UniProtKB/TrEMBL annotation:
One of its GO terms (molecular function) is DNA-binding transcription factor activity. The keyword rRNA-binding does not apply. InterPro entries: LysR_HTH_N (IPR000847), LysR_subst-bd (IPR005119), WH-like_DNA-bd_sf (IPR036388), WH_DNA-bd_sf (IPR036390). Transmembrane segments: none annotated. Keywords: DNA-binding, Transcription, Transcription regulation. Belongs to the LysR transcriptional regulatory family. Residues 2-59 form the HTH lysR-type domain. This is DNA-binding transcriptional LysR family regulator.
Length: 298
């Protein structure tokens, strides 16, 4: 009779490369690991590993066997985890993807009220949506929407982008140029500053520039940091400027660590969405996540 633990042990040996490593991962003894492997090899009638002094090397058949069983094992373990972590509310374990900055700035302090266990994944919308479409995630806080089949996008928040600097940064010249509507000179002043940016393709800065200067930005970033909270913290302790979402900058502005230089001639805004596959989530899960996001508006 096939034992699922044999397959888990095989997976652990394959991924760690040693019997000891597998034992540590599975929280069982090394003799038990050896016993599971021997039983599996006897059951399928093939040698899966070559036993070397310090390493278990998969045979050709072992490699083939791994590629054929790993997806099924991962799915079974995922289902087992859902049942293990389901709370008394009967809401299943819920996996949610979102930008790291959104979680740490506005959601982290709210999650204790959730009536279910939650697993969070951080990343960019494009990557997170791929995981939503593949079923690895149930919900995504997305910064844009598309028209994928069965995917629902519910708008829940507007973010406005602000031009930000250190609180003590001298912006007198820029302020004067803006007040007299000398926008070409104001843009020139901006290009001469030290810029902190999220990525080299400048997506948010491009939007702000096109909205307010009707052209693409001609700036050379000094620092590229893929974390807006880290960018704002860097500016709070040094010099330089950036363009960031209002909800991320709010606390540091109130603490007088950074300041808003300019909202722009026209507000540059973006809609944030709750995205989910309507066929993969329960009504209780949807209502729970909606309520959590509603709390972030306070």
């Amino acid at each position: 009779m096939v034992n699922l633990e044999w397959y888990r042990t095989f997976k652990a040996i394959y991924q760690t490369g040693t019997l000891t490593g597998a034992a540590v991962e599975l929280l069982i003894s090394q003799p038990n690991v050896s016993q599971h492997l021997s039983a599996l090899e006897a059951h399928i009638g093939k040698q899966l590993f070559e036993r070397q002094p310090r390493r278990m090397v998969p045979t050709d058949y072992g490699k083939l066997f791994y590629t054929q069983i790993i997806e099924a094992i991962d799915k079974l373990e995922h289902v087992e985890a859902e049942f293990r972590y389901t709370r008394t509310s009967n809401i299943p374990l819920t996996c949610i993807g979102m930008p790291n900055e959104f979680f740490s700035q506005v959601l982290a302090s709210k999650i204790h009220v959730a009536p279910a266990n939650l697993v969070f994944e951080f990343g960019l919308t494009q990557t997170l949506m791929k995981n939503l479409l593949s079923g690895k995630l149930y919900f995504v806080v997305a910064t844009n929407c598309d028209n994928e089949k069965d995917i629902v996008y519910e708008p829940f928040r507007e973010e406005n982008f602000l031009l930000i600097s250190n609180f003590g940064h001298d912006t007198t010249a820029f302020d004067q140029l803006i007040s007299t509507k000398e926008y070409d000179q104001a843009e020139k002043w901006l290009t001469e500053q030290d810029w902190y940016v999220y990525s080299s393709d400048l997506p948010i800065i491009r939007r702000f520039w096109l909205k307010n200067f009707k052209k693409r930005p001609a700036i050379k970033p000094r620092f590229i940091i893929p974390d807006f909270n880290a960018i704002l913290k860097g500016i709070a302790h040094g010099t330089g400027i950036t363009i960031a979402s209002d909800y991320l900058a709010k606390d540091l502005i109130e603490a007088q660590k950074i300041k808003e230089i300019w909202k722009g001639r026209e507000i540059t805004s973006n809609t944030m969405y709750l995205a989910y596959n309507k066929n993969n989530v329960t009504t209780a899960q949807i209502e729970m996540v909606r309520e959590l996001l509603n709390l972030t508006r306070d």
